[in-house]
């Protein structure tokens, strides 16, 4: 055996033995240590081949809280084929050798992530939004945002460091109990903060937390997604550690009930979806997503499923558990029926009749066919589909939103067939949705007159920038998780390769501008924490696909209704 091949074999043997070693130590930088195997270099070629062929089957044991069925399905990750037997188009096949040597960026990313930690009375309670010393304006980037901390929390959980996540969950739960007022109006008891800041007093040696529930945010909008992310993260913590005691604490049970009581209260709604204001989620500026935005609906569905698995069936929990079950059933039907768009459905909408009356109407929302934008006819492939951005009376927002669609895959709001179609669309429209930097937050961008009317001439959300068609590296972890769950890891591998070509060199920007995501965003902060954490989570999931079980859910049988639109539907 020649020297180059022997080095590859040595590396393979070393990695396999190190994987099977229990109780491996952690380095201070957060990279798992690999034990030295000096004696391997002394073996001859026949011994090495025997060791490779006769090695015991590796047992990548996770916590017992992982769902067995989920892990069995994730084992398809080692295949280059999708769940339906078709290989990915125009994407390189993933090779297991990629996981043997950590990319140099991983070490740099862990160092940057640890620098971003925020401490309260000596304990880590989160990570700041950005660690950009070059920026003159700090604004609120030195605060801990609930939604921003999620990828950081997942990175720490996947690296076996759950304490910071537990501290964060308890601290934000404590903040939830505070009185929340904007001007003279009191917010609901279940509202979670958008962010909080730790103020250190070096003279008195005290720490104080100041929370923002939207009263300081641009636009003064309360974050609807914060409570949903909190519940989803609590489930991830439980799945990762196997520790159910945190979720079973009375204060955590109460916190979940308060969050969901805000959303499950009866009102004038005729739909099971959640009515929201503009700017109440990751898209936190005026972008025409008011109504029933896909991001909020997907997170709401996932939070309902997460809470359903953690709430106790006691006197206080039984009533809300019944409401959750009914809402999940109604939402799965509504979203899969009316938010889903593929080539056939587009053709049906194109041929819709309008002004239909009675329960037999096919065009239930009275969508006007002339409102279909011209770009969509060329964008929609024959094979593929997605959940549209918004559906409400006489209005259908046909834009693609990345976060909402990825969450529908992970939460199983999308059926297996719809999940496959979403990944098909991403591959078929790679240049539009991924380009040179993953991933477009929405597509396409609004420009000219539409931009002026919808955004109010927002100078930050100009065409193909920021929320208006900008490319956000943090979305890489969601794309990776969805790719693995659907058996299409080659999609994630291709996206990670693009990110690795520039992210570190560019200083971990918050977002990129341009149709292909070529330019660093004009107002993007450097060393954006969730850009760093999103990359780390994506890399760790690629190295160990069972980690997707923290955030992924399988479809439940009771949520498989027959999708009949109406009695007149044929």
TrEMBL record:
GO terms for molecular function: endo-alpha-N-acetylgalactosaminidase activity; sucrose alpha-glucosidase activity. It catalyses: Hydrolysis of terminal non-reducing beta-D-fructofuranoside residues in beta-D-fructofuranosides. Its EC number is 3.2.1.26. Keywords: Carbohydrate metabolism, Glycosidase, Hydrolase. The keyword NADP does not apply. Transmembrane segments: none annotated. SUPFAM superfamilies: Six-hairpin glycosidases. GO terms for biological process: sucrose catabolic process. Pfam families: Glyco_hydro_100. Belongs to the glycosyl hydrolase 100 family. Invertase that cleaves sucrose into glucose and fructose. PANTHER family: ALKALINE_NEUTRAL INVERTASE F-RELATED, PTHR31916. This is Alkaline/neutral invertase. It comes from Thlaspi arvense. The lineage of its organism: Eukaryota, Viridiplantae, Streptophyta, Embryophyta, Tracheophyta.
